[in-house]
Amino acid sequence: MMKRWLPYILLLFVLVLSQAVCAVPYNRQTALGDTTKVAKSRTNKNKIEYKAENPGFDVRPFAFQGRYRIPQGIPRFDNSKFFSHLYAGVGGGMEYINRRGKYNYRTGTNYNVFIGKDITKEHSLSVALKFGSNLVRNDDIELDKFGVQLNYHFNITRYFMGYNPRRIIDVSTILGAGYHRSEVWQSTTESVYGMLGMRAAIKLSNRMHLAVDPYMIFSSPGYNGMHKNETAFNYNASYGIGLSLIYTFRNELSHPGINQTPADDEIPMFDDRHYMFIEGGTQTIHSDIKFSETLGRCFTIGYGYWFARRLAFQFSGGYTSGNWDKYTTPADIAMGRPQYEYMSKVQYFFGRAELAGNTLTLPLKDNGKRKYFYLGLSAGYEYGFQWKYTESSRQTSCFYGGLTGALQVKWLLPEGKALYLSPRFTLVNFGVPYKKPYDYIEKKYTDKRFNLTLGLEFGLNRRPYVKRENDEEKFKFKENGKLKFRQALSVSTSFGGNYIMERGRYKGFKTYNMTGAFAFEYQPVKYFAVRLKADYNTHNFSDMWSYTEYLDGKVYQYTGLWHLKYRVINGIFDVKFDLSNMFSGYDPYRKWNTAIYAGLVMSKHLPFETELHEDELTLPGSVVSVGRSYPKDMLYGIHAAFNCRYSITQRWGVFGEFGVKIHKNTYLWAPYVDYNPLRVLDLEFGINFKIR
User: Fold this and answer.
1) Distance CA 504, CA 392 (A)
2) What are the mean pLDDT values of the chain's consecutive 10-residue runs (692 residues total)?
3) Taking phi first (over 0 means left), then psi (-120 to 50 degrees means alpha), and beta for anything else, what does residue 50 get?
4) Rounded to 10 degrees, what is the CA torsion of 151, 155, 156, 157?
């Protein structure tokens, strides 16, 4: 036994000896060198003096040249106030539970929220809430986990290299203990555990760090959902890795007046800290049908805040849809009906929280303040509600959550505007309950969703009007010299398409839903205007409907694939909220203008058009008619839209507008339209002319 520990004892002796040697007091008269000879010594009561006969080579100036030196101007560690070095974080990761019983789990997800404080520059305490899940391999059983954990952190980097709040990477240990609660098959178990890990915290800004935490856990029985393991040793082991975002409320570099380097400057690279964005595009879902058959739509609106030079928080919400499956209707030769394909849709309403960053700035153009083109990345969590439909209008609806990430190719424009193209990938995780009596068990699925969107971003900083030459002749000024708003009257015309949220559709007709509009707008004040708009919509549907066939006075009843084309005239009264004037101030020379419209809509149907599919067999010389009608009453709803306009000249401009009309179920009738309530989405592009 002694032989086994002998190498470790010798190593410890060497380390202690080296520390003792380094601890000898330094004396200015002591000469270090191989050739040093002591010629004379004299002893007094309080001191010992040495006189070197041959001083030789003095190694002292060169001995510690490679050691770490704290840069000048680094403030000392200050923990005098409550919020000093208080931090909070949120993160997620993966965890694998070693098999020690009948359940063999897959690698699962882990999430945590924590708060902590640096007690000294090397020592820190934190408390965390943890939750997550693991699935059993080759089964749909899920283990749900929840726990509370107390952590002690020892900062290795600060201990050996000193305290430096500007350091890029800090490495620390994590020693934790916690309480854990597991639930599987409606069976609940409890356990206590210990955790050992490491943390590498990468500095993103003065207050923000990105941390990578690998760890191992050893626990009492119950961590894996079983009261007792089937192995000889009744404990559990697991390991994992987490990624966390940590925000420090106050540290030395956050004090006012501190001398910061440009890399630590938290002023964003762009004109505005606060910004809004809207984007739209197409979507596809990884499924058993062709890529081209899954194509759908995606619309998003959101808000962002640049909290550091290259990092921002983004919060957004939106809607996306696409086809996820298809079904084939059997042919009926006797009734003259061929085989058709039905496409089943999936719809998502979601909210997102993301961290966005500028990863690469390309120097295509520089006006002395910023570059005009950059590549960005964003990643975060998406949570929402989904509907999946089948061929018989049955649906599966449930909440879902998942990870999402996107690349942004952004072109920065003047006045805080930007255009960008953004491909996005999202993992959608959800559970569908089994039939009774197993409603408490969920069958787990994961959808892979891809989006490609075109977006517009506009900043929310206020930009006061700058007076120019000859403005006195064109605009009226107040007595204090400020520009007085000039009333505006304009007309516009636009053309585009519309989309009604459907549960599914039959293939067989190539259709396009058209939108055309004409509008008058009057803006008497800076922030608000009124608009009267008339537009014309067509809505196309394909569906299996019963119909009547007439021949030589005889009546025959059949069912076949019909195409219906609704035609609707809408009158819209809107109130305009001028976002550009609200956030940036009034400027008659502004090139980019953004606004939101909200109001009421009145709708009147024209006679609709019907057409039987050409593959349907009919008797020669017969006349067919479908037993459907269109709404004949005036219908009412609400309208909202987002408008972005670019002024080519003082009078002419072009614009794009995305809007939604919401009606009751009586707006039109089609069996596979999503009524809750009915929503018509419009995307229009047009020309605007300012009369005055």
Assistant:
1) 10
2) 53 48 39 40 48 58 55 72 88 85 79 93 94 76 88 93 86 94 83 93 83 91 74 75 88 62 47 87 88 88 85 91 86 77 89 86 56 82 88 75 90 84 90 58 79 91 76 69 81 93 81 92 93 94 84 83 90 95 85 92 91 82 81 91 92 93 84 80 94 84
3) beta
4) 150
Residue 244 CB contacts under 8 Å (≥ 6 apart), including other chains: 89, 90, 91, 112, 114, 210, 211, 213
DSSP 487: P
């890990």: which residue's tokens?
Answer: 197
d(CA 45, CA 437): 94
Taking alpha carbons only, the member of 342, 411, 438, 197 closest to residue 671 is: 342
**DSSP state for residue 333 in the 8-state scheme:** T
DSSP letter for each residue of 6-37 = HHHHHHHHHHHHHHHHHTSPP-TTPPP-TT--
Amino acid type, 674: D
Give me the amino acid identity at 314. Answer: Q
Asked if residue 605 lies in contact with residue 632, where contact means CB atoms within 8 angstroms, the answer is yes
What letter represents residue 209's amino acid?
Answer: H
First to last CA, the chain: 99
Label residue 623 exposed, middle or buried (CB < 10 Å: 0-12, 13-18, 19+). Answer: exposed
Cβ partners under 8 Å of residue 103, min gap 6: 136, 141, 143, 184, 224, 225, 226
Question: What residue type is 670 in one-letter code?
Answer: A
Kindly provide the b/e burial profile for residues 412-432, where b requires at least 16 CB atoms within 10 angstroms of the residue's own CB. Answer: bbebbbbebebebebebebbe
Q: Which residues neighbour 417 within 8 Å (Cβ) at sequence distance 6 or greater?
A: 456, 457, 458, 459, 592
